[in-house]
Amino acid sequence: MDHIVTVQDAVTAFADFMEPTDAELNAIEREMPVILADVDLLDAHIVTLDRTPTELDDRRIRRARRRALAARVALVNRAAGTSVHGGAA
Is the pTM of this model over 0.85? Predict the structure, then answer.
């Protein structure tokens, strides 16, 4: 007698209950600016992996780091229901 356990796992792996919920999709959407800023920072670092960073590379990394930090601050402020204007915290 052959067991079809592996076939059952393949069938239920894509069941409706395995999809992300609306709340999870909304959370991803809210965090998307942070995700994209982190990707830009990672790209800036990847460029410098196989060579010595130039001044332009250093500036690109600094700008990407500032954008990533600003995106995180904006996300936290939105979650807290506040917004900071004028650069003062």
Answer: no
